Amino acid sequence: xxxxxxxxxxxxxxxxxxxxxxxxxxxxxxxxxxxxxxxxxxxxxxxxxxxxxxxxxxxxxxxxxxxxxxxxxxxxxxxxxxxxxxxxxxxxxxxxxxxxxxxxxxxxxxxxxxxxxxxxxxxxxxxxxxxxxxxxxxxxxxxxxxxxxxxxxxxxxxxxxxxxxxxxxxxxxxxxxxxxxxxxxxxxxxxxxxxxxxxxxxxxxxxxxxxxxxxxxxxxxxxxxxxxxxxxxxxxxxxxxxxxxxxxxxxxxxxxxxxxxxxxxxxx
Length: 268
Ligand SMILES: *[C@@H]1O[C@H](CO)[C@@H](O)[C@H](O)[C@H]1NC(C)=O
Ligand SMILES: *[C@@H]1O[C@H](CO)[C@@H](O)[C@H](O)[C@H]1NC(C)=O
Ligand SMILES: *[C@@H]1O[C@H](CO)[C@@H](O)[C@H](O)[C@H]1NC(C)=O
Ligand SMILES: *[C@@H]1O[C@H](CO)[C@@H](O)[C@H](O)[C@H]1NC(C)=O
Ligand SMILES: *[C@@H]1O[C@H](CO)[C@@H](O)[C@H](O)[C@H]1NC(C)=O
Ligand SMILES: *[C@@H]1O[C@H](CO)[C@@H](O)[C@H](O)[C@H]1NC(C)=O
Description:
- By secondary structure, the protein is an alpha/beta fold.
- The protein has one domain: Ribonuclease Inhibitor (Leucine-rich repeat, LRR (right-handed beta-alpha superhelix), Alpha-Beta Horseshoe).
- Helices cover 16% and strands 14% of the residues.
- It has a 9-stranded mixed β-sheet with strand order 1-2-4-6-7-8-9-10-11, with no helix packed on it. A two-stranded parallel sheet has the order 3-5.
- α4 links the parallel β7 and β8.
- The chain is globular, with a radius of gyration of 22 Å.
- The N and C termini lie far apart (61 Å).
- The C terminus is likely disordered.
- The structure holds 2-acetamido-2-deoxy-beta-D-glucopyranose (NAG) (6 copies).
- One 2-acetamido-2-deoxy-beta-D-glucopyranose (NAG) binds next to loops.
C-alpha cells in the first residue's frame, strides 16, 4: 500500500515536471519572454522575431539572446543589446517584465533608448532578483535620478553605465548618488560628461564600494577627484589593486588616457 502510494506520488511529480519542462524552458519564463518581446517592440517593432512558439522552436532556452542554467533550465542571462528599433523612440523600463526570471544573473540592456521607467516599476525593483550580478545600462538616456534606484541592487558585481547623461544633454542638479553596492567589482561610468562637473564623491560614494577592482571614469568632467579611500588620486602610484581610468576626468585638458592606479587598500 505504502509503496503504491509512493509510486503514485512519483508519477504525479513526474507528470507535473513534464508539464513544466515540455517546452525545454519554464513555462512562466517562456510567457515572460514573449511579454518582454512585445514590450520592446511596442507598438510595431519586429525585433527578436525568433522568439516564437511553434512546432520547431519550442525551447525558449535556445532563443537568441537567452541563456539558461544547464541544471535548473531557468534563464540566467538576457543579452538584449541594441534590440529596440530606433524608429520606435524612447523606451520606458518596466521591472515586472524581468521579475519572473528568478535566477537571472546577467542582464544587458545597452543601447535601447531607455529614458526612465513607468510608475512603481523602477530599476530598484530588480533587487528582488537575488542573483543579479551584472547589469549593463550603457548607451541609454537615463538621467541622474536613477542613481539611488541602482543603489538598491546590492548583489551587483558589474554595473555598466557608459554614456547615459550625455545623450540626454540634461544639466543635472540633484543630490542623487550611487552608494552602498559593497559587492561591486567593476563600475563603468565612462562618458557621463554633462552631470559630472562637481567632485567625484558628490555622485559616487566610492568609499562604499569596498570590493571595487575597476573604475572607469573616462570622458567625464569631474572638477575634482575628492579623496578616495582617504587618498587623493593625484598622488597615487604603487602597488596596484584598483584600476582607475581617469582620461579626461580631471579638467579635461586632453583626450589622452592616463590610467591612475590605487594602492592596495588597508582593509582588503
Ligand atoms: C518556427 O519558428 C522559427 C523561428 O524561431 C522559424 O524559423 C520556423 O520557420 C518556424 N516554423 C514553423 C513551422 O512555423
Ligand atoms: C552548459 O553546458 C554547455 C554544454 O555542455 C557548456 O558548454 C556550458 O559551459 C554550460 N554552462 C554552464 C553555465 O554551466
Ligand atoms: C508592466 O509589465 C507587466 C508584466 O508584463 C504588465 O502586466 C504591466 O501591465 C506592465 N505595466 C505597464 C504600465 O505597461
Ligand atoms: C554578461 O554578458 C555579456 C554578454 O554576453 C558578457 O559580455 C559579459 O561578460 C557578461 N558579464 C558577466 C559579469 O558575466
Ligand atoms: C556594456 O555595454 C557597453 C556599451 O554597449 C559595452 O561597451 C560593454 O562592453 C558592455 N559590458 C559588458 C561587460 O559586456
Ligand atoms: C540647483 O538646486 C539648488 C537647490 O534646489 C538651487 O539653489 C540651485 O540654484 C540649482 N542650480 C541650478 C544650476 O539650477
